[in-house]
Structure formats: structure tokens, C-alpha cells
């Protein structure tokens, strides 16, 4: 069969199109494109069916494992496919590793090295126990995140655009510096002992719960990377859709209760807003997918991310 | 009911736009008058009150966007109004040493011409239902010059203010305190300056896009 590849402006991406066997898959098409244009490796290609003139709705994305013939609706020998270059891609593991590495390195630098002398604070500084525990807590948190990235998470997309590396690193590294600067400051004022213990204990429990949530999510996806969605269940997922985000937010709350900085609370609020956005989208998607019709289960009533508010 | 609310909206927006128009007209008038009579160092004192009123009133526009009274996206109005308020209150009012600088003249003239055109444009659309094509053209063309002159004046004045901000320690919150919070107005102003680097091309590009849309639409209309 012949595939005509066009860009959104109508221009032919590969002159004359591509000839493939009738039983070829989308993946074969992606390899063929990559063979003709070296820089377009498969994860950089976004292939969709052209939208019918005047029709609304989202375009149909070609799925790698499907047969090309499945997308032909009349003419079984000809298919027109819309091509979009997604730009340079990096693997999600790479993206997460770099964004988490910043906080993991910057925070100990503020704790161990005399950086505050460059801000005009000379002399020895007194280090309170809470500041030491905060260092351990923070570093454990980001170390855990890096480990989860390599050993636990199963990503729905293999890659992410390179521009996200800069954007995400700016976010994590800037906030990391902002918080580390204030918690390790020579003029830091610690909270009471009980408040510190409550904060760190609660935070630790939430971090462990968060890890358990990630394990549950991992087991929802098969290792062959079929993607797709399942209804999450078990543990906190029985009451809230994005229990992993819930535990993450509460874990930062624990850190802030123990360390009490405006910087930490600002980060908590911004992170919560970002995660709430994601959670609302995921919840909506699951409800739409599991609508109870045609034998599909119905998505049970659940909180989205932060019971009892949302 | 819907017709009544829509009429109410039109009356309110007409009143709002024409009132602020008058404010900016005063700014331009007093600025030019002061320039001719006393020179650039006297401009600020002549325009201070109408400038503060007209610019601060623009906060209402953020509200208008949020409640849906107007179509402008909050993401475009917020940085614009933010930088204006920072200049009017955070620099000119807070740091008096900047008031006699020649950039104050270019600042208020750039701003007032832009706003006179903008508010009369919206004022006409709300009150009369249309705006003349020459006003449309002005609205989407004068920014080509006035954005660069205005932005240069803004950046220049913030830069001029920096040493005075550092020396005065104004608006600074130091540690130790219960919430382990610090705020350094000097560093915050430097960050504000840094934001102009990506922010200015973004705003200019946005207006270029708006210009293309608005002027091509009027051609085919």
C-alpha cells in the first residue's frame, strides 16, 4: 500500500510517498520515515489521520502496534497521514534524572559549604538539629525520586521534548535553591521540638505511602509497554484517584511543618496547583473511559486529589 | 434578562473606558505642558496624580478578564499591568530620586499616547458598537514604536533606581523571624529586570500577532 505523508501546511514530507506491504504496521511506517529522513527517529514523529473538513474533535493518532490497514476507511491501498515533528526528544528517565539532580546537589552545598559568607554573613554558624534532619529528609526524598525513575515508574510515553528539560530544571533547581537558602541560613529560627518531630514523622509516613502508591501504579501497567488505562485500586486509591499526588503533597506539608519557611510553603502551593491540574485531567480521562457502557466498568465515585476539598 | 445584562455591561465598560481615557489625556496634556514650561525634571510632579489614578484603575481590567466581561486573556494583561504598577508605585513613588530623570518624560508620553488610543478604541466599540478604521489602525500600529520606547524607559528607570533601592533598604524583610522569610527589594528589582529579557519579545510578538489578525480581518470585512 502507498502512504502519502503530508505536513499540516499541506506540503509532502516525503516526495512520492512511501510504499509498504499491505500488512504493514504503523511502526513499520515510522521506521521507513526514519530511514528516509535520518533526523526523524520514531519518537519524534506524531502521525495522525487528517481531520475531515469542518469536523471538530481530536485527531486520531496512529498507534505503533496497529496495522496501517486499520486506518484506511475506503481505499485499502492508499493512506494519507499527517506528520508533525515533535522536536528533539529525551527519555523520561533522562528528564527526571536531571530535574531531581539539582535539588539533590544544591541543598547539601548550602548546608555544608560556607556559601552565606558571599551574602555578607561571616563567621561560624550554629546548626540546629532540625536543619540536619531537614537535610537528610530532603536528600532522601530526591534520592527516592531518582530511584523510582529508574526502577519503578512505567511511563505512558517513552519520551518528552528537550525543551521540557530546561523548563523543568528551572522549576526544580530554582525552588530547591530558594528553600535550601532559607532552611540553612545562619539566622534560621527553628520551631519547637514537638512540632519538628510531628512534621518529619508525618512526612516520612507520607513518603512511604507515596512509594507504595507508585508500586501499585507500576503493577497496573504491563512491562511490554502497552500503555492504556486501568482503574487504580487498593490502598488510598480506593478513595482518591491520584493518591500518589495526595501523598506527595502531604509529604511536603510534613517537611514544612518541621522547617517552617515561607519559601517551603510557596513551593508547596505551586506544586499542589500543578499536581491538581494533572489530577483533574486524569480523573476526567478515567471517568470518560470507564463510562459503564458496553460492558466497560463504571469509574467509581472518588475524590480527585485532596479529600474533602477536591 | 440577558439583553438587560448585556446593555448594563456595555454601559459600564463605556463609562470605564472613557473615564480612564480622560485620565490618560490629562497625563499627556500635563506632561507636554511641563516639558515646554519647566523641562524634563518637572514632568513627574505635573502628572503624578492623574498617572497614579489612571494606571491603578487598570487593575479593574484583570477583574474584567477573570469574570469574563472582556475577552482579553489574563495571561496578557497581568504582566502588562504588573510592570506598569511596579514602575508607578514601586519605582517612581517609592524612589523619589528617579523622578527628575529624563526617562520619566519618554515613559509617560509613550504610555499616555498608547492608552489614549487604546481606551478611546474600546470606548467607541462599547458605546457606538464600532470603531473607525483609522483608530483601529492606530491601535495596532503605534505599538511598533511605542513599545520599544516605553520598555526602554521602564528598564532604564528601574536600572537608575537600583543604587537608591539598595541604599534605602526599603521594603526589605530580614532574618531572623518566625517564618524564616526574607525579602530583598534590590534583588527582586533585578529579577524584575531579568523578566524583561524574555517578556518584551513575548509581548511584542503577541501584539504583532494581534495586528495581523485585526488588520487582515478589517480588509476582508
Automatic annotation (TrEMBL), chain A:
Gene Ontology CC: membrane
InterPro entries: 3-oxo-5_a-steroid_4-DH_C, SRD5A/TECR
Gene Ontology biological process: very long-chain fatty acid biosynthetic process
Protein name: 3-oxo-5-alpha-steroid 4-dehydrogenase C-terminal domain-containing protein
Similarity section: Belongs to the steroid 5-alpha reductase family.
Residues in coiled coil: none
Residue span, 3-oxo-5-alpha-steroid 4-dehydrogenase C-terminal domain: 159-310
Iron recorded as keyword: no
Subcellular localization, as worded in the UniProt entry: Membrane
GO molecular function list: oxidoreductase activity, acting on the CH-CH group of donors
Keywords assigned by UniProt, alphabetized: Lipid biosynthesis, Lipid metabolism, Membrane, Oxidoreductase, Transmembrane, Transmembrane helix
Transmembrane intervals: 95-114, 126-143, 164-183, 198-217, 229-250, 262-280
Membrane topology classification: Multi-pass membrane protein
Organism: Zingiber officinale (Ginger)
Domain of life: Eukaryota
